[in-house]
Amino acid sequence: MQQSFTFRNIEEQRAVFGTQDVWARKLEDELNVTLTLRQDAVEIGGNESDKAMARDVIKAMVQLFHQGETIKEDLIDRLIEDSREGSLDGLFKAMESAVTMNYKGLPIKCKTFGQQNYVEMLREKAVTICIGPAGTGKTYLAVAQAAQELKDGTIERIIMSRPAIEAGEERLGFLPGDLAQKVDPYLRPLYDALRDVFGQERADKLRENGTVEVAPLAYMRGRTLNHARIIIDEGQNASLSTLKMALTRLGEDSRMVLTGDVTQIDLPKASDSGLSRCAEILRGVQGIGVIHLTNRDVVRNKIVKDIVKAFEKEEARQVEKNSGNSYRTPGRRPYTPDRHKGGPVYVRQDMPADEGSRHDDTRHI
Question: Whole-model pTM above 0.90?
Answer without folding.
Answer: no
